[in-house]
Amino acid sequence: MTERIAQEFKDLARIALRKARALPQGPERNELRQIALALKTLAENQAWLAGQRRGR
Prior knowledge:
Elements: H1 2-22, H2 27-44, H3 46-50
């Protein structure tokens, strides 16, 4: 189950990064890039993922 949650976070990170790349340089692009990085980091943190519950 944690693998599925991790994959969803990775997918969201990819989507955010694609949207950021489509924007011109500026604060909105930077914010999306930071969100993508945070989602990727969460997807790689197995200890954090183990504590998550799906479907609350």
